[in-house]
Specification:
The chain has a five-stranded mixed beta barrel. It has a three-stranded mixed sheet with strand order 1-2-3. A three-stranded antiparallel sheet has the order 4-5-6, with no helix packed on it. The chain is mainly beta. The chain is about 5% helix and about 35% strand. The chain has three domains: about 5-70, no CATH class; about 115-150, no CATH class; about 160-320, no CATH class. The protein has helices spanning about 10-15, 85, 160-165, and strands spanning about 5-10, 25, 35, 50, 55-60, 65-70, 125, 130-135, 135-140, 145-150, 175-185, 195-200, 205-210, 225-230, 240-250, 265, 270-275, 280, 290-295, 300, 310-320. α1 (about 10-15) links the parallel β1 (about 5-10) and β2 (about 25).
């Protein structure tokens, strides 16, 4: 740039020499602010700015070449990666459930640029013609909380087969369709045995249901057992044990009782009574003395000691 003085614009215009377009600062006499004019320079200094009068464009020199300094559209660049090549929605398919984000590829070229998100909703169950939600859904900025609402469980007994009911589950427990509970064991129990609740070290624990016999009926007033139900698994002291409190399962039977008249031939629906060992026996007549009724047999069977047979557990004490 050959000039660095400040030009007075009215005076400069009065000359009407358009070819003398000097570089420098310009101002009006009546105003304090000034304007900078750059010219068509070829010096080539790093950071130099010029106005190319041939192309009518502002340019800057980067040390190697002149770069156009305007907002006009440049050359078309290389296409970037497609969204589906950059982002992938992953879900662990080993876990049962659906995808919150629909696992479909976007097709921007076809006008599809939206990510489809599924909404979480609760299933509805009906109790006595009143609809209730299975879960309550709440949310904040960080979490979505799913709270399970309690409801009574309804067992589907339509697929029960008596021939397979007595076969244990893979974990060794007896099958059970009904109310169950878990207790700590005080004395070793066997699956199919009826158990009673006792207090040990101020804790409720279970042990096999037994009572003094000596050829007599149990004293259901003086030594009334607190009957819980049927043990569903073998368990040693201080181990947990699942117990069927009521429902359909298998019980351990016996053909021994000194005060009951035993019948080894069972018919579907026969009453099952509990003997002094906590096992179920069948009698063909109502006892004249107090007894404990365990429930009713399911199906026809021949009783052999310690055999497991299908049974409907419904405990009651008959003391009349």
């Amino acid at each position: 740039m050959s000039q660095s003085r400040i030009f007075n614009i009215p005076k400069f215009k009065a000359h009407e020499k358009d070819e003398d377009k000097f570089e420098g600062w310009y101002r009006y006499d009546s105003q304090n602010h000034v304007a900078l004019r750059v010219g068509n320079s070829d010096i080539g200094l790093d950071g130099e700015i010029r106005f190319n009068r041939k192309t009518k464009q502002f340019e800057g020199y980067n040390g190697n070449r002149w770069i156009i300094l305007d907002s006009s559209k440049g050359d078309t660049g290389q296409a970037g990666k497609d969204f589906n090549e950059v982002v992938e929605f992953v879900c662990d398919e080993k876990e049962e459930g659906g995808f919150v984000i629909q696992p479909s590829k976007l097709e921007p070229n076809k006008g599809d640029s939206s990510i489809k998100v599924r909404k979480l909703i609760s299933a509805i169950h009906n109790i006595n013609n009143e609809e209730k939600k299975d879960i309550t859904i709440t949310e904040n900025e960080s979490n979505i909380r799913l709270s399970v609402n309690s409801k009574p469980h309804v067992w589907d007994c339509g697929n029960i087969v008596l021939d397979t009911l007595h076969r244990p589950n893979p974990d060794g427990t007896l099958k059970c369709y009904g109310d169950t509970a878990i207790f700590l064991v005080h004395e070793e129990v066997k699956r199919g045995q009826f158990v009673q609740l006792v207090i040990e070290a101020n804790r409720p624990v279970i042990k096999p249901l037994t009572y003094k016999n000596n050829g007599h009926a149990p004293n259901l007033f003086g030594e009334a057992p607190n009957i819980v139900g049927v043990a569903l698994e073998n368990a040693k002291p201080m181990h947990a044990c699942k117990v069927c409190c009521s429902g359909i399962t298998c019980v351990m039977v016996s053909n021994e009782s000194s005060y009951l008249q035993i019948d080894n031939n069972v018919r579907d629906g026969n009453n099952g009574l509990i003997n002094h060992e906590g096992k179920v026996v069948k009698t063909n007549r109502k006892p004249l003395q107090p007894y404990i009724k365990a429930g009713n047999f399911l199906g026809n069977h021949t009783i052999t000691k310690n055999k497991l047979v299908p049974f409907r557990v419904n405990i009651s004490i008959i003391d009349e």
